[in-house]
Design goal:
The complex is a heterodimer of chains A (388) and B (131).
Chain A lengths: L5 E8 L10 H15 L9 E6 L9 H5 L6 E4 L6 H15 L5 E7 L8 H8 L5 H8 L5 H16 L3 H15 L14 H6 L2 E4 L1 E2 L9 E9 H4 L7 E9 L17 H11 L9 E3 L5 H11 L7 H5 L12 E2 L4 H4 L6 H12 L12 E8 L4 E9 L2
Parallel strand pairs in A: 2-3, 2-4, 9-10, 9-11
Antiparallel strand pairs in A: 1-7, 1-8, 4-7, 5-6, 8-12, 11-12
Helix pairs in contact in A: 7-11, 10-11
Chain B lengths: L12 H8 L4 E5 L5 E2 L12 E5 L3 E13 L5 E11 L4 E5 L13 E8 L5 E7 L4
Antiparallel strand pairs in B: 1-2, 1-3, 4-5, 4-7, 5-6, 7-8
Classes of the chains: A alpha/beta (388), B mainly beta (131).
């Protein structure tokens, strides 16, 4: 018997940005309701639920009650940090294919920004525990992912000669995409390379604009069979391939740290499952918590040879709207919104459907999606595609 | 310099007790002779994995300069890095008494300890003499 083909049939979001009015579980509920409506379904059609959250208010099994979902055949919390959204779509695809459930809502939600606090303080506080080895690292001045990733980036720079200017080209290109995306937090704020260089340092070599935004919000998708998706109102987005790779580098001696990530393993495996080559990928939605994360992931997927990503992204006409390589076409986590792996997943579905408006990429038949978590510790890849 | 005392938990108790007396511990696999980072869980096989004092020297294999807002409204530049110990493991540490504008790659460093009023200490690294 042929394997069931899988598709994403619904996409929904809550309010995104500095959304203070609702907690993370409520935002998750809003996103699921929106995704279900987008798919032309009722909540009673949902028989599976996978959920996760970031550093804010945890989303737990009570989200089922929040949504009034009855008699679910599948429900689980999934957590592998920034790779989670991609992983959940893969698990949902497997569950539909196995017959375990038919219509699975996958939702990721977070509310790190609270009234009267900055988002960055929410993230810094998470690493400032004065206990144990985490406390020792924090007492030594390293209490946020900004520094951990700066240390990774420096290794790439020293090994391959990658420069801040090259990273700046990624920031500028993604801002150009964001300027075409009304959902982007930086929709109406252009960025030049000069402004990138003039922005304050956070942790050298990272400037402010090497670092992602911080956002509250939730994104949900509905995963079902392709056959069922074809009867629903939205263009089905096929889930063609999925793979994971979790090297686990943090704090431990590993010469690959900052040099190669799990994308080098999960990318080729996901492409193989999708029977797709890199040449066929028209759009790449790459996890970009930092400019450097996008760069190293593009190398690891094979878009550029290892170590040559820096000069390549700085080539005129490579990135940005109209460029050779359509990367992070909504502005990404750097310039649209930062909902961990849900950010690249959201834009991938928009592009695969052909609903990108001014920023729509013509060649959107195959879309590559990455998720990256920890400090390059956890990785998931999805290959999505149009139906016919 | 490390800015605050750190409360020990089960995983860090031996390491922090040694730091308070000026010793920097790593973990040795007595079967293979291999060394592991101090965070390595010795309780999985206490006969096999033992804490041993490290030489306390190594080289910088990556660095960053953290920009921290200070009480005067300015910004302090605080060099930090990954130290590859002579025995092999990595340790993430502040780098004290280094030029934040210099290329710190491969800089030879040695451990030092910031002592706190409660008798505890937190290790950090500084350049080896003559480096």
């Amino acid at each position: 018997m042929a394997e069931t083909d899988i598709a994403i049939a619904g996409l929904g979001t809550s309010e995104i940005g500095r959304a203070f009015t609702k907690s993370s579980p409520k935002l998750a509920g809003d996103a699921v309701r929106a995704a279900v409506a987008d798919a032309g379904l009722q909540l009673s059609d949902v028989d599976g639920l996978l959920f996760s959250n970031g550093l804010g208010t945890p989303v737990d099994v009570r989200v089922q009650m929040e949504l009034g979902l009855k008699d679910l055949k599948l429900m689980s919390y999934v957590q592998a940090f920034g790779s989670t959204a991609a992983l959940m779509v893969g698990y949902a695809a497997m569950a539909v294919r196995s017959g375990m459930a038919d219509t699975i809502a996958v939702v990721w939600s977070d509310d790190p920004i609270q009234p009267k606090s900055s988002g960055s303080s929410a993230y810094a506080a998470a690493g400032r525990a004065p206990t144990g080895f985490g406390g020792i690292t924090a007492s030594n001045g390293m209490y946020s992912a900004n520094t951990y990733y700066a240390l990774a980036a420096r290794r790439h720079m020293e090994r391959f000669g990658t420069t801040s200017d090259q990273l700046g080209h990624i920031a500028v290109a993604q801002r150009q995409w964001a300027n075409l995306n009304p959902m982007a937090q930086f929709y109406d704020k252009p960025l030049t390379l000069e402004e990138y260089h003039a922005s304050r340092y956070i942790a050298e070599p990272f400037h402010l604009y090497d670092c992602c935004l911080i956002s509250n919000g939730a994104v949900a998708v509905i995963v079902t069979s392709l056959d069922r998706a074809r009867s629903m109102p939205q263009p089905p987005v096929r889930v063609l391939g999925w793979a994971q790779s979790h090297p686990g580098y943090t704090f431990i001696h590993d010469d690959r740290f900052g040099i190669v990530t799990g994308a080098a393993e999960s990318g080729p495996r996901a492409l193989k499952m999708a029977d797709t080559t890199l040449d066929e990928i028209g759009v790449a939605e790459i996890y970009d918590c930092y400019t450097f994360t996008a760069l190293i992931t593009l190398e690891d997927y094979g878009f550029f040879p290892k170590g040559e990503g820096g000069p390549a992204v700085a080539e005129p006409g490579m990135l940005g709207p109209g460029g050779k390589l359509a990367v992070n076409t909504g502005g990404g986590e750097l310039s649209a919104f930062y909902l961990w792996g849900a950010t690249p997943l959201h834009e991938a579905v928009v592009q695969a459907r052909g609903q990108g408006g001014e920023r729509q990429v013509a060649n959107h038949g195959r879309v590559l999606v990455s998720g990256n978590g920890g400090t390059l510790d956890y990785h998931g890849t999805l290959v999505l595609g149009t139906d016919r | 310099m490390p800015k605050f005392a750190v409360q020990a938990d089960a995983a860090s108790a031996a390491f922090l007790e040694a730091a308070a007396r000026g010793e920097f511990l790593i973990v040795k696999d007595t079967q293979t002779g291999e060394f592991h980072e101090p965070q390595f869980d010795v309780t999985q096989d206490p006969e096999r994995y033992r804490y041993v004092p490290a030489a306390g020297t190594g080289v910088v294999v990556s660095w960053s300069v953290v920009h921290e807002k200070n009480a005067e409204g300015g910004v302090d530049r605080r060099p930090v890095g990954i130290v590859q110990l002579d025995e092999g493991p990595w340790f993430w540490s502040e780098l004290v008494d280094v030029d934040p504008d210099a290329n710190l790659m491969d800089l030879p460093v040695t451990v030092d300890f910031q002592k706190f009023d409660d008798g505890s200490a937190v290790p950090f690294f500084r350049p080896q003499e003559g480096a």
